[in-house]
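not sure who needs this but someone in the group chat was asking about Sacsin/Nov domain-containing protein from Glomus cerebriforme so here u go. i didnt clean anything up, its just raw.
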Amino acid sequence: MSLDNFRYQVLCTDGEERVEVDQRLLIDKILARYPAEFVVFRELMQNSDDARSSIVQIIFETANNKYNVVRNPLNPSKRLGLDRKMEDNRMEDKITRIIFKNNGFSFRLEDWNRLKKIADGNPDEQKIGAFGVGFYSLFSVCEEPFVSSGGHGMAFYWRGNQLFTKQAPTGDNDNVWTTFLMDMREPLEFPDIEKFARFLANSLGFTGNLQDISVYFNDALVIQLSKKMQDPKSMNITSGFNTFSPQMMFNLTSVNVRGVQLNIKKLVIPTNMNARQWRSLPITDFQVEEASILLRIANGNLDVNVSNVFSAEMERITKKKPPSKTTIQMIYAGFEEYRKYNRIISPVFKDLLPYPEQGKIYIGFPTFQTTGCCSHLAARVIPTVDRESIDLAEKTLTIYNSEILRLAGTLSRILYEDEMTQITQLYNEKIAADIKEKSAREWFEQWAAHALSHFTFRSSTPNAQVGKETESQFYNCSKNILPILSTIGVLPISNVRIPNPEMAGFIKTVPVVPKIIFEQCNVFFKKEDIIKLIEELTIKDVLHELRSRILSENEIIELLKWWISYRSKGNNVNAAEFAQFLQLARIGDNSRPLNTIRYFLNPDIVPPNVDIPSETLPFVISKHLKSQDLEKWVGLSELSLANWARFIVNKPELENNSTFAKKVHQILAKSLNSIPQTDKDIIHQLFIHKSCIPTKFGMKIPDEAYFHNVNLFSDLPTIEFKKPANVINIMELLGVRKVVELKLIFDRLVSQGNWDHIQLVKYLASMSSNLKENEIEILKDKPIWPKESPKESNNNEPKEINPQRFIARELYAPLALHREFGLPLLDWRGKWACNMHEGKFLIGLGLLEYPTLKNILELAASHPNLKIRNKALKYFMDNFEVKYSKNYAPQIDIAFLPCLSTGTYARPSECYINTNCVSMKFNAIRQDLRFQVERLGVCQNPSNESLLKRLIDDPPRDENKAKIIFEYLSSRQTDFTDDNWKTLIDLEFIPIKDKSNVIILTSPRNCFFKVQEDLKDFFSHVNFGDKANRFLFSCGVKVEPSPVELAELLVKSSCELWNSFVDVEKYLTMLRRIAIDIDVIAVKRPSLIVEMRRKTILLAGKKKFANNKKVLETELKSAKEIYINDNQTYQQIFNPLVAPEEELIETLYRVCYKN
């Protein structure tokens, strides 16, 4: 069976039961949905406003309250605090009862009935309440509330977890007040005055009926809030607006605006006290604060048109039908109110004036939901149960609420455009009156920024969809493009340009967003929808500006700054636009187009206070710009010195006005050194034939003028400048003479006869930098200078008339040392110094300031005076690095170095530093010079070739001298090459004594350091000591004879050797040594083995009897005559000559026996 059948079967049975509800638990769970502070008062004030109350009283009573004064609702107490008799009234006393009273209409029967029912909301579609749970917020603070209204009362009480009520007449004739009595479940503290006042002010903002709220502590008035409203003013809705919501559910039929003023009087909490301290004060000690705020409330009247189906669904959900008409309201502060009254407001009103922060959605009272813009929005949208946010979850309610939010966007747009309309009217009046003060413009811009900021939407919280719905309608509800204030008035935003700070200095006719608006509303201009509508300034806008007017000097500066920045950022400009820019941008009083300008001025080259070519950009403009930018982005080039010279050279004042000419030369001189040579050549050609040089004899062409310090003759036209040193370079370039021509000098001096060469050199030295190269060469080869006479060298007496004169390079500087050396000196009167001006000049002409290398070495080598010789050598050594090293070569052919041997002088290549080389008859340097001469090319020791040659040519003939020589050569072993050693091994240079005790020479190959005593007659033995032996060992002398050499000895002299040995064992020992290396000998010296086989060199023995004893007789035989005894029987039978019975010896014999 199906589940439907099962259900039907169950429903057909008896046993029906009612669903039980735990009312206490239900109310607790409902109250859990109300997290906001002061929720009780919010619900009661909302009910009061729905009941058209104008006045609300809230009385907080304590347990010790002695005052039960009846408050006249038509004339409530206006005093804050109490008389002195009430001074014991303190806020530290806990609240035990709260009484809430309103003067709205009394409860009707249906109202009393709804009060008893949970979730039975007010069916009136014009009322806020929808869920029927607001009243039950009272149970959050009390257990059994009591309600009194219109002479009736209803009491609530509990039986267990079930709530009961009783209703009956009260006998009270008061038809004014509806009262709610709440005895606290637990004693409470009086609310924080600031927070509570802020809550109440915020709640009073959008109430339609409620205008006065009074708060009492016992009978002391603590807070008094009142609201005054102006008459509404109707606002025109232009034809461009679409007043319907997207699904045509709502239609905005009219809009009106009214001013609202809220006033407050309240006790002020001392700022220097904590809560415990101020609560302990007598209430009469508190100060009183009064404050007010001005606001505007815009009211939008809506017609509602929904389908029956939609209406039914709404009624199912909210228990009331949608209204046929409703309103939406926006609360905001106009610019003037904000500027004059609300810029600094009491914190109590802070929530009512959110600007510049976001406003809140009010559903009777504020919720947590923000609007997205800077205005509060009050609308009969459907809230969540806790009335803290809009219901955008349930499908039907989402449609309904979204449609209302959409028209909130329409209302925002109407309010914004109304502000723009007002700005337009006043702006035009100001412009018509020609009022262009900066303050007036800023006032308009601040006003426009204030309006735009109010309706710039940000992301709303906690639900971002709220702001998106409103913002979307704000932009789309009108056919007209959104207007904004520009620099030339209110215009559609698409006609306005985003400001560019770099263009602000010259863009005047193109509408731009003012800086104040752009900065204060930067969020608005970053929005995607706005970015699509408004463009940035472009090159086309710039060209439009240039076409419309001629820019001022300062504007041209700003224009060029922008152009340079624009191009340097990589913005491309086509050729046509570039050409238009250069043509339309006009400069100066003559409105000269920029495309006719070629140069810009560098004041470091050409000062701005002189005449310049007309195609030069005025310096007042170019001084604000970088040169490289003008070159790269404007196409100008720096006015070069050469181009300025081309211009200025044609000025007639250059040749007839010395002051003008001096200034021109000063300008040219200042930058002349930094220009290329080609430009210098141009300037030279331009001025060379101009009479432009001011002299003491008038204006001269450059070639006719002399520098100011040319004073050799008094009748020369020398230049006249206040500071001649500053124009030296330009005078040089133009060819002004620095010196008198040498021909003129010589002609005049020669005509004078005996002329003073010292005066001449002083003049020439002073002008040396100005002499031309060919003139210097003439002076070098001219015999001008007299030689010092030896007999007059030490006095200042006048010299002989017409002395012989020499070329400078033939003479030496007149120094005492040169005089002592006997060198030819320049004749000079007075003190001489090589570093004085004249000395430097003469040395430059060739005067010798120190002896030449050849002279000084010849003095050291052969001067007859030994003292001069030593002094010359010392001078050479002391000045070698500075004066002689450059031209010195060790191969010099002058023997100037003193050696150890007295009176001996040698060339650097002929002597050595190591004195041990003297043993081989080489020259050694004198020892006091040994640390100085290596730089002269003197070697420490003779070369290996020299040593080898000396051994070959002059070997030692004495053993003692040989020992000294070999010891010296031992220290030089590392210098010898392999070829040297090959030569030395067979060179006979080792002295030994022969058998006759006569010294003979032998080679290293034939010598040994150790020789057996019995063999010394056969081998040469040497020993010159350890150090000398090391050299000989390297030459090839062996330690002792080798087996090969012993074998050779046997082959040559076996008989003599056998005869010299007394003991047979010594001969056997020799044979054993040969036997050890016989295999090696056989490989390396096979010819020797052949000789050994042939020669009688082997020891053999035969047994004989003598004196009845068996005796072994030994003798030398060849190998073929000897047998190896390998069979005792045969040996006894035949008794042949046998080899010694040793395996090693037998091996030798076998090798010698082989064919």
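also The first strand starts at residue 55 and ends at 62. if thats useful
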